[in-house]
Amino acid sequence: MRSQDLDVLTQAQQWLNAGEHPWLCTVVQTIGSSPRPAGSLLAVCNGQLIGSLSGGCVEEDLLEKLASGAFNDKVPELCQYGLNAEDNERLGLPCGGCMKVLIEQLTLSCAEWVERVTTTIRGRQRVVREVCLTTGTTTLHPVTAFEPLTLSNDRMRQCFGPRTRLLLVGAGQLAQTLSSLALAMDYEVVVTDPREQLLNDWPGPPVEKILGLPDEVILRQQVDADTAIITLTHDPRIDDMALLEALESEAWYVGALGSVRTSDARRARLRTLGLTDAAVSRLHAPVGLAIGSKTPWEIAVAIMGGLTEVRHQTRKVSASKGTS
Questions:
Q1: Cα(117)–Cα(83) distance, rounded to whole angstroms?
Q2: Whole-number pLDDT of residue 318
Q3: Integer Cα distance of 324 and 321 in angstroms
């Protein structure tokens, strides 16, 4: 499974290599409700497209305009959708929603930066693409942390690569399916387990695997506010020690697999082991959304759904504090 950014840019690279000049369309700004977040990509070539801006009529409108030669093929051009209620209804956008899309035609000179970005994404690294809106020139800057897309009068900065790090404690079957889904959602995944055989026999996707006691691994990883930690082993001797460190770290999300009864018992143990009520209250347990999941893939979907919910809630709180 691959991230959508990688799929779009890989196809654009293939078109460029074939001598075509595809169009790259990027959602650079959203106001109100929007079907796709800023940074979403769409590539178009000879009526073929990959990616998504709205999942509906915006793509159809773009195809019509591109076919008619409505956009500048020399420098990037901004196109706005959702200007009024009639526009929203015609394009299938949410009421009050508005989005700006940057339209740029890629030429053979773009092949180098496209290849570098796809290589960076495959390597689970991060890079910022900075586009001069007056000339169309692209420059790339390696970064260590993911940055949100920014748009100014004369340039756009867009970060490619993992948006956050997910540290999984336990290398069992659920960790394998969860890793696959997290990678597809642009997470950087690290799996740790003190049981060497499980790591040696890991059949899951290629991720960083660390042998060691999870609490010591968490300390060495220098967990920051871009890290989520989830324990999956069901073994209190492993999970509890990891949670003792995780709940006092800067991790933005800490979760633990287990039933309601198991989770209540775990919270009691953590308090006995010295964690404060404030620290214990940060624990998401049972981890994930309550959707009745039973199979590993269903549980993985529930967990990633829970992470997504909390991440967006956190962003809303941060945004409200920034405007207060």
A1: 33
A2: 46
A3: 5
* Mean of pLDDT values over 45-72: 86
Q: How far apart are CA 323 and CA 316, in angstroms?
A: 11
Contact assessment for residue 57 and residue 88, using Cβ atoms and an 8 Å cutoff: no
Please count the residues of the chain.
324
Nearest to 10 by CA among 140, 111, 149: 111
**CA gap 137, 76 in Å, rounded:** 9
Strand 208-211, strand 23-31: pairing: unpaired
Residue bearing the bigger pLDDT, 50 or 32: 50
Instruction: Say if CB 39 and CB 65 are below 8 A apart.
Output: no
β-bridge pairing 227-231 and 253-256 = parallel
Q: CB-based contacts of 203: which residues, under 8 Å, 6+ apart?
A: 176
DSSP of 139-182: EEEE-SS----EE-SSEEEEEES-SEEEEEE--SHHHHHHHHHH
Q: Are the C-beta atoms of 196 and 224 separated by less than 8 Å?
A: no
Q: Output the pTM of the full model.
A: 0.71
Half-sphere exposure of 63 (CA within 13 A, CB side): 15
pLDDT by residue (tens digit) across 207-261?
Answer: 999 999 999 999 998 788 889 999 999 999 999 999 999 999 999 999 999 999 9
pLDDT tens-digit series, residues 177-201: 999 999 988 888 999 999 999 999 9
